[in-house]
Amino acid sequence: MPTFTTADGTTLAYHVMGEGPPLVCLPGGPMQDSVYLGDLGGLTARRTLIRLDLRGTGHSASPRDPASYRCDRQVSDVEALRAELGLERVDLLGHSAGANLALLYTARHADRVNRLALVTPSVFAVGLDITAEDRLETARQRRDEPWFASAQASLEAITSGRAKPADWDAVAPFWFGRWDDEARRFRAAEQQQRNDEAAALYASEGAFAPGATRAALAELPSPVLVVAGVYDVAAPVRVMKEYAALFPQADLFVQSRAGHFPWRDGADAFVTALAAFLDQASAPAPGT
Fold first, then answer.
1. DSSP assignment of 189-204, as one string?
2. Which one of 34, 127, 185, 226 is at 20 to 30 Å from 246 when CA atoms are compared?
3. What is the pLDDT of residue 282?
4. Residue 225's closest CA among 253, 192, 248?
């Protein structure tokens, strides 16, 4: 698989799969092996996916300085990947916590971003507030599920600050549009794919400056697509509407019967929405 070397000498790997124009994909977790993104529900039939293994994850090397796991310090890794690919401008996708990195890159390198897709994004980089009621109201849509009562009790414990370790596992069904054997296998694999040391440092002090980031994004000329799952307790729809409003040119796609991984819950709907967004005429470069 291809690799490149960053400014601090860390060797990073990336994966190339599919056909069509390139789409650079940043995984969440935070600091999760990009393998969980797979082919993004079959988007590889329309786009060449370039999945970056963030430093210390997947097939990428760990850095000499663990402090470089901090989200803002990884912006230069994304820029180094762009240069490695020989692209003047990139179509960029960030999922979950990876959206924070995508936003920080965009705020710093707006002239390098053609289109920006943010899938069930984390809101740390822009400082939005997700309330306990946002999460609980979203969860109540699942009240007819057989697992709901125990999962809801654990979610209430988490949102009120009373969580025990077992509660985090108990709420796993809320992350998926369907809590079935396939989702359980995906969840089990995902738990083994994160660099916990890196995850603990990703949002450490100094990683985010929400006011400055929001000000930069308010001037962004590039089109943006925000994808929300109607069942997603991590990125509730009310907050995703507020999130999309931060950009001058943003559309919000709310996918029905989808959780935090919408390409798994409805591949056709997800691919159709992403392809329609990405296939629009290219945005003009700033200053042209």
1. HHHTSB-HHHHHHHT-
2. 34
3. 54
4. 253
Q: Do 60 and 5 contact (CB within 8 A), yes or no?
A: no
Q: Which residues, other chains included, contact 51 with Cβ-Cβ below 8 Å and sequence gap of 6+?
A: 14, 15, 17, 25, 27, 34, 35, 37
User: Is 26:121 a contact under the CB 8 Å cutoff?
Assistant: no
Could you tell me the residue ranges of all domains in the chain?
A: 3-127+196-278
| Confidence (pTM) | 0.96
Helix H or strand E segment including 104: helix 98-108
Tell me the average pLDDT of the chain: 96
CA distances from 278 to 17, 47, 88, 115 (A): 17, 9, 17, 7
- Determine whether 268 is exposed, middle or buried from the number of CB atoms within 10 Å of its CB (0-12, 13-18, 19+): exposed
* Cβ–Cβ < 8 Å for 17, 69: no
How far is residue 32's CA from residue 191's CA, in Å, rounded to a whole number?
Answer: 9
Q: How many CB atoms lie within 10 A of CB 199?
A: 17
- Name residue 162's amino acid: R
As a whole number of angstroms, the distance between CA 135 and CA 19 comes to 37
pLDDT in tens, 212-259: 999 999 999 999 999 999 999 999 999 999 999 999 999 999 999 999
Task: Identify whether 30 is preceded by a cis peptide bond (ω within 30 of 0).
Answer: yes
**CA 167/CA 159 separation, integer angstroms:** 11
* CATH class for the region spanning 3-127+196-278: alpha beta
Distance of alpha carbon 107 from the chain centroid: 16
Rounded CA-CA distance 102/51 in Å is: 13
Contact (Cβ atoms closer than 8 angstroms) between residue 155 and residue 173 = no
3-class SS of residue 4: strand
